Structures are given as structure tokens and as C-alpha cells.
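Give me C-alpha cells for this 255-residue protein.
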Amino acid sequence: MLRRSLAVAAIDARILRRDLSPVLVMTVIPLVFVPFFIPGARAQLIQSGYPSATGVEYALPGLAVLFALLCVQQVLTAFFRDQQWGTWARLRVSPASPSELLIGKSLTAFIAQLAQLVVVFVGGAVIFGYCPAGSIVALAMVLIVFSGAMIGFALLLVAAFSSLELALVVGNVVAMAMAGLGGAFGPVESLPSWMTAVAPASPAYWALAAIRAISLDGADFVTVLPQLGMLTAFVALSVGAAVVLLKTRLRKERS
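Here you go.
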């Protein structure tokens, strides 16, 4: 199983290396926007009881998570590209199962997604002095699991929609909604009550809660385990649903 998945991943990696510009753009843009968000973020943090905060502790994670959500469109393009090129039909008749195909197609996207997040945070540290008060290991784990959640979200869109255009529209709208509910644009507490009630359904909510606890409150790995657990549950549910939907679609196509 692993060998077949790695073979599929290797093909996508070669294609990605030929044009890294989309990944680079989505990595640079968050860092460009950080200075515009810092003053407002600093005021919010001081009001919330963090008088020594610079604002980057709030602005950087919010923008990183927002653009990680928007990077889902790159994953969608990679999947639907196979249909346009006719390579998806070849993969379907290969010995690889639907689960193996999804794992292989997801592996390269996961690495690219994680690398994008890591570069944004490292860039924030170098350029803007971002320095989490808590555990770096805990922060790394949050980024890894959140990257998995984003890939799971992309897989669900791929399995649910048969056209790239529809998947992109729905994906972008849902991504922006999840970012807003998660607190990427401002504190969740400032949202209307009905929004705060549904905010926990967004993976961005749990990712930002964990990152801000690490950045501002000195949280360690054990402290953010509940948020990691919720993100892991989102990965499992979205990937499981994607596999079921894809198998159903393949059966219909064969019949």
C-alpha cells in the first residue's frame, strides 16, 4: 500500500517542482500583510490583558491560518488536473485502491502545506520578532495536524464535487467562513452569539486557540492536547467521508 501511494506522490512532487510559484506566492503574501494587522492586533491584545504584546502574536497566526485555508485551492487544482490530462483514468485502472490514490495524491500536498506554514512562522520570527512564549514542539505539532486537517478538507471537496470550478467556489467560501469563525480576522468573543456557537466546527478555531495559547500564555504540549484532539478528529472525519464519497462515485462511473 505504501509503495503505491509513494509512487503517486512522486509524480505530483515532480509536477510541483516545475512550478513552485503558487506555493511561494501564498507564503509571501501573509508576511506582506502582517505589518498592516499588527497595530490593531496589539490594541486588541492590550485590551485583553497582554500589555507587553507587540501584536505579531495575534496577527501572524491569523494570517498564516487564513492563507493555509486558501491554499486548499492548490490541492483542488492538483487533483482535477489529472482529470483534465486524462491521467486520473489511468490511475483508476492501476492496482492502487481509492484509499491509496488519496494518500498518494495528498502526501505531496501535505508536505507543501506544512512547509508553507513553517516558512510563514519562521519568516515572522526573523522579520517581525515573533517569539512564542510556550513550547516550540507544541507549536510544531499544531502546524502538522492543522496541515492534515486542510488536506482532509480538500479531499472532501474533491470527492463531493465533480468540477474544479464548483469545488473552488465552495472551497473558497467555506475557507473564508472557517477563517472568520476561527478568529483569523478578530477575536471570536467579539462575534455574534450564533457565530460563537458554531465556531468550534471550524478547524481554524482549534488551531488558532492552540497557537495563541502557545504564543501568549506559554502553553506546552499537554496544555494544547484538547485542541490537537479536535483537529485530529476533523482529519479523521473529513478523510473518512472523502474515501466513502470517492468509492461511491467510482462505483457509479463503472456502472
